Amino acid sequence: MSADRFLAEWTRITTELTQLVDTALDVEPPGECPEAWARWLARFEVPREGEDARYQQVRADGQTKGAPLKEVQGCLESLAREASTRLAPLRQTLSAEQAALVETSLHTLASSALDHYRTKATEKKKRMFGAAKALANQHQYGGFKASIGYVLTCATCRAPRLGESLTCAFCGGQLEGVS
Ligand SMILES: [Zn+2]
């Protein structure tokens, strides 16, 4: 009956997704493979692109920062598969409406996160100095509010949600519109 266990697991998944994208975006210059990123590749058993291939890829994709798209995509797809497996036994605790919402969210999890990543990783760098630069270098995607770009979650219970729904299928709370 209670969706608490589901929500706890879902929160874990979206947190990990956010950290994964954060780490990938922190890679500079583009195509490098720092230890922090290598750990994600190992975590999701994604093969590391070769030294030459990774720099070619980021150049071909017009990236201004970040790990190669191919590696990020591999990690995201692996995360989505794992999430689906972990959530499967918890689905019986959900209503039909909630289960359908979860199904949709899992389906789009990897692709919408990758779209978000591609946009951020190909952004032109702004010329910045001093305080502005320090501010920009802080993690911008940590935390749930910031992750709204690629995982839509209810601000109250952190359940998955769809952009067009007005009330949360989990806690019944009013959802703000997504701009
Ligand atoms: Zn909610």
Please state the oligomeric state of the protein chains shown: single chain
* Unreliable residue runs: 141-148
Heterogens: zinc ion
Main sheet attributes: strand count, strand direction, barrel closure: none
Mean pLDDT: 87
The total of helices stands at 6
Task: Give the overall shape, derived from the CA principal axes.
Answer: globular
Domain module count: 1
How widely separated are the two ends?
33 Å
Specify the helix fraction band.
40-55%
Proportion of strand residues: under 5%
DSSP strand tally: 0
By helix and strand content, what is the structural category? mainly alpha
What's the alpha carbon Rg, rounded to whole Å? 17 Å
Helix/strand order, N-terminal first: HHHHHH
